[in-house]
């Protein structure tokens, strides 16, 4: 464990905030260019996040937050936990950290030039090592917990696709069971799986997909949206048939339900953001019963383009018809479904913050998942309406983004 940062180091890092605000993205772009030049290291990253700029942007924001809060690192606890969970899912190991440190320090020197004095470089070397040790120690705890849990494992475990089901025109579910036939670690509703998928002529690809099934010792289900330019999602749709074997790491993620459930819950999603909510809905309605679920205020709100793109629609409407949940579904394109079901209300247009505030319980806990723009609107709107951060939960696709780093530090 690195020693605590001294006052001089923290003062220098704080003084670098204006430079990071001006040049942070240039630094992280340069850093990733250096990392990706090493094939052994580049295989650890989701390359699509490099092409669209998400990963460098996310890291630039994370480094800036670290510098801004260097005197009160407790504020970064949520961010550190999410990063550690991601790293464990992707099997990041202590020996990978020196490569990142070398690339980061080299990028700082390259971008800032003569402004990167020896004192500044020494401070950032200490600052990086301190943060690396915090993450390594937390990740070691998570790896141990996974290895020791019944059905748990570390590293990549082979799973076989046992079934695939089209949930809509754009979403396909894959039922996965361990190839060795042994039990698996039951996940916590809201967690995700990480995959190491080899795509022909493209090599190893790392991806995270939310688990859309209720916890079980038998296996997991993921539900994947086909992306027009999605290398892995298109391969799954076109080539991952029943019997295909995939390499999977243990469930990860802190976007989970509280235990016990003590307040009304609003599940607020758009697009494929509904996938972790299927696990939550099925768990709550199975564990506490339909009547109790309805009484506690389990409110499912989802935005989709049309009836053709709505995944899990029949299942949600069946639960709502039984009184297990209250459901509101918004269709931004195309007509409303021809048939209406008791307990489910169909709306034309998009989910708006005005509607959410007017139609949800004042003491609700909000779980939010979907595209970044949707999440920014929902989270900033709820905060502006006075909803405290401890009643906001969120999940972000891909790397940590503006949503996570500036709106969702809780």
From TrEMBL:
GO terms for biological process: cellular response to nitrosative stress; nitric oxide catabolic process; response to toxic substance. Its EC number is 1.14.12.17. It holds the Pfam family Globin. Residues 154-258 form the FAD-binding FR-type domain. It catalyses: 2 nitric oxide + NADPH + 2 O2 = 2 nitrate + NADP(+) + H(+); 2 nitric oxide + NADH + 2 O2 = 2 nitrate + NAD(+) + H(+). Residues 4-140 form the Globin domain. Its cofactor is heme b; FAD. One of its GO terms (molecular function) is FAD binding. It is an enzyme of class 1 (oxidoreductase). The keyword Iron-sulfur does not apply. CDD domains: FHb-globin, flavohem_like_fad_nad_binding. It comes from the Bacteria. The keyword Oxidoreductase applies. Keywords: Detoxification, Dioxygenase, FAD, Flavoprotein, Heme, Iron, Metal-binding, NAD, NADP, Oxidoreductase, Oxygen transport, Transport. Belongs to the globin family. Two-domain flavohemoproteins subfamily. In the C-terminal section; belongs to the flavoprotein pyridine nucleotide cytochrome reductase family. Is involved in NO detoxification in an aerobic process, termed nitric oxide dioxygenase (NOD) reaction that utilizes O(2) and NAD(P)H to convert NO to nitrate, which protects the bacterium from various noxious nitrogen compounds. Therefore, plays a central role in the inducible response to nitrosative stress. This is Flavohemoprotein. It comes from Acetobacter ascendens.
């Amino acid at each position: 464990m690195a020693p605590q940062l001294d006052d001089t180091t923290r003062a220098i890092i704080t003084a670098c905030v204006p430079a990071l605000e001006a040049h942070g993205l240039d630094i992280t772009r340069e850093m990733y260019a250096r990392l990706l030049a090493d094939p052994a290291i580049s295989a650890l990253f989701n390359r699509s996040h490099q092409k669209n700029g998400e990963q460098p942007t996310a890291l630039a924001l994370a480094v800036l937050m670290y510098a801004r809060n260097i005197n009160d690192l407790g504020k970064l606890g949520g961010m550190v936990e999410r990063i550690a969970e991601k790293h464990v899912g992707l099997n990041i190991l202590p020996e990978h950290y020196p490569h990142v440190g070398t690339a980061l320090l080299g990028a700082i020197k390259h971008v800032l030039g003569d402004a990167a004095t020896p004192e500044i470089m020494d401070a950032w070397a200490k600052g990086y090592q301190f943060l690396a040790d915090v993450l390594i120690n937390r990740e070691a705890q998570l790896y141990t917990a996974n290895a020791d849990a019944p059905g748990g494992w570390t590293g990549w475990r082979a799973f076989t696709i046992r079934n695939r089901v089209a949930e809509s025109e754009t979403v396909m579910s894959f039922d996965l069971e361990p190839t060795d036939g042994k039990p698996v670690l039951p996940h916590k509703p809201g967690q995700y799986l990480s995959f190491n998928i080899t795509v022909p002529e493209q090599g190893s690809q790392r991806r995270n997909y939310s688990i859309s099934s209720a916890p079980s010792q038998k296996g997991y289900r993921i539900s994947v949206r086909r992306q027009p330019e999605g290398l892995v999602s298109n391969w799954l749709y076109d080539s991952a048939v029943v019997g295909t074997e995939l390499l999977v790491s243990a469930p990860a993620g802190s976007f989970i339900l509280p235990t016990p459930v003590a307040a009304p819950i609003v599940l607020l999603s758009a697009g494929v953001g509904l996938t972790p909510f299927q696990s939550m809905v099925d768990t709550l309605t199975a564990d506490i019963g339909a009547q109790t679920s309805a009484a506690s205020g389990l409110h499912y709100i989802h935005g989709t383009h049309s009836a053709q793109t709505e995944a899990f629609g029949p299942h949600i409407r069946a639960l709502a018809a039984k009184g297990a949940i209250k459901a509101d579904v918004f269709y931004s394109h195309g007509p409303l479904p021809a048939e209406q079901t008791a307990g489910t209300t169909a709306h034309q247009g998009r989910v708006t913050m005005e509607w959410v505030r007017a139609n949800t319980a004042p003491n609700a806990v909000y779980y939010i998942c979907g595209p970044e723009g949707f999440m920014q609107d929902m989270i900033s709107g709820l905060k502006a309406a006075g909803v405290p951060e401890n009643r906001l939960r969120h999940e972000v696709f891909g790397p940590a983004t503006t949503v996570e780093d500036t709106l969702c530090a809780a």
